[in-house]
Specification:
2 copies of one chain form a homodimer. By secondary structure, chain A is α/β, with parallel strands linked by helices. In chain A, 46% of the residues lie in helices and 11% in strands. In chain A, helix 1 crosses helix 2 (15-22), helix 5 packs across helix 13 (287-303) and helix 10 (218-230) crosses helix 11. The structure holds a DNA duplex (16 and 16 nucleotides).
DNA sequence: TTGTACGCGTTATCAG
DNA sequence: CTGATAACGCGTACAA
């Protein structure tokens, strides 16, 4: 593997000149340019990216961290990737499976300048730990967070959840079971607050259903359906934490011969592909815009620029499960 | 940001000694070690990963390239990631959306030593183009390929498809519609060959169904269902290219009030999550092992080692759609 | 046990 | 228009 010096020597010029040719600087005579290019051809010269990285201090690599591969992460990745590639950035993926150590690997890579920035889709370490790394580069999160140093592209779910509840109310449901996502997340808090306010507004008395939370997977939905069937006092609608929960629930109910929305209404959240597949009423969430914004924020921080963020809007997708 | 020299100077030692402490070499007196460590602490010293990368010539980054985010890619990524992280490797993702240019970015990064190796899950460029980059580092593919320089972790689908067909036959289906994946891929060829041999073996005369290929998405499955309903002479079973096609098909049929497997049998391929969700009979494909093998091959090439590959096995998953 | 000095491959400044 | 040379930070023979 020849390097820039060999090329310089063989072409009878200095490395500076070779570098100029490489980066198509002006002020290089056509004669020397051609000479250099020819030698490069001959020796099959390839500039070493690591040397450039070391010199320039930028890798154009952004780390994205999540606990698992959820359908939502995929949408996020897809949109982020699209935005990033326009500016020559690529993505390094860290799936932690909840292992704080794996997350540390990513943080350390930022610290050691192997990554230009980090996006936390779903964190494992405490925010304090993560925050202590902000001095090494931009860190953005998708989760809800109020932190001076870690910008968030989160969109509050209170209103969106309230909209879903009002839809169920309008459809005649009065006995709604809420199934919440991660109990550690603030989304659950917001959704519970939205329900409390809704119940008060609509004068719905407290039910005696158990509290369902930490339910986000298809399997969770399947268990939910089994629970529903076993009850004597049943909810007439279930507002699921994710479309996947709704999917597992609705297919299991169908399998047991229970009609949806006849006997029970089912509602999802996020509008992922499975919601379309199973004709689920759900809330469309602007994941794409959030992902784009995550990139824009990073790009702004890296270049001290001021590109504006995209506005975030949710909307109710009414299908036939309610 | 202090560097190794500043630390050396402040500690009153040479950079070599600092480096030794950094990499916990033996033969450093405890006294000097402590002195150096203290200074590092004080100055909040962080070794620059890029400099190390340049010096050592390895990034411990492997690029993975695919056209889209299919459920199968996710399984692959997940398993690959698990294998890779044990050896300190991370993954950089390239989703090309069929853009050969984006694929070139990855190839160039390998060439320029920003990536240690490349895995083509789904390529866009011609193999010839890709092959010309093998001199810059290990390139492995998941697709079927017979190439000296590009190892493949592909598993032949002839037998698996034949097993699926025999299952349908055993269930009494005689009028099978085959829906094939990418017409450019060899999987389609193998599956068609399996069907031809099956038809001959079971003395099934040629049907007059159109040739369905390049069908891999949920939407493709939905269209397929519409097609099926519109026919007078209908197949009694559909062997779908992927579970997603089967999913789109079966839900649409249900929606139209058609019973599965009563009026038509539906069979998927790959055993992804949606197959479980919709209770689809399918073929389980050893994606995890293929992914692990991809990493093992790369690791072997990088270290001239000889770790053995995992054996590949498929199996029929019988559920209730046939 | 420690230090010197060079190499890794580029870019960028400054002179000419 | 071109060349010398100093960074960028670190690892490592070789010598002591």
């Amino acid at each position: 593997m020849p390097n820039i010096q060999q090329i310089a020597r063989m072409a009878g010029v200095s490395t500076a000149t070779v570098s100029r040719v490489l980066n198509s600087y002006p002020y290089v005579s056509d004669a020397t340019r051609q000479k250099v290019l020819t030698i490069m051809e001959q020796l099959d010269y390839v500039p070493n990216g690591n040397a450039i990285t070391l010199k320039k201090g930028a890798t154009h690599l952004i780390g994205i961290i999540s606990v698992t591969f959820s359908p939502l992460l995929i949408s996020f990745l897809d949109a982020f990737n699209l935005a990033a590639e326009k500016y020559g950035f690529n993505i390094t993926l860290f799936i932690t499976n909840g292992d704080a150590g794996k997350e540390h690997v990513a943080l350390e890579m930022l610290k050691r300048k192997q990554l230009d920035a980090l996006v936390f889709v779903l964190r494992t370490n405490e925010w304090e730990v993560i925050e202590s790394y902000t001095k090494y580069g931009p860190i953005v999160t998708w989760q809800r967070l109020e932190n001076e140093r870690i910008p968030s592209v989160f969109m509050d779910q209170y209103e969106a959840y309230a909209t879903g509840l009002e839809h169920l109310y309008a459809k005649g449901y009065r006995n709604i079971l809420n199934v919440y996502p991660m109990s550690t997340g603030l989304n659950t808090l917001e959704r519970r607050r939205a329900y409390a306010d809704f119940a008060h507004r609509r004068q719905i008395t407290a039910d005696d259903f158990p509290l369902f939370q930490d339910r986000t997977s298809i399997r969770d939905g399947e268990e939910l359906a089994s629970w529903w069937v076993a009850q004597t006092h049943r909810p007439d609608a279930i507002f699921c934490a994710t479309d996947e929960v709704a999917a597992g629930c609705i297919t299991t109910l169908h399998r047991m011969g229970i009609s949806v929305p006849g006997e029970v209404g089912i509602m999802g959240f996020n509008n992922t592909e499975v919601a379309h597949l199973l004709d689920l009423t759900t809330i469309h969430y602007p994941v794409q815009q959030q992902a784009e914004n995550a990139f824009v924020i990073i790009h702004n921080m890296l270049n001290a620029s001021q590109t504006a963020l995209a506005p975030l809007e949710y909307r109710l997708i009414e299908r036939h499960s309610t």
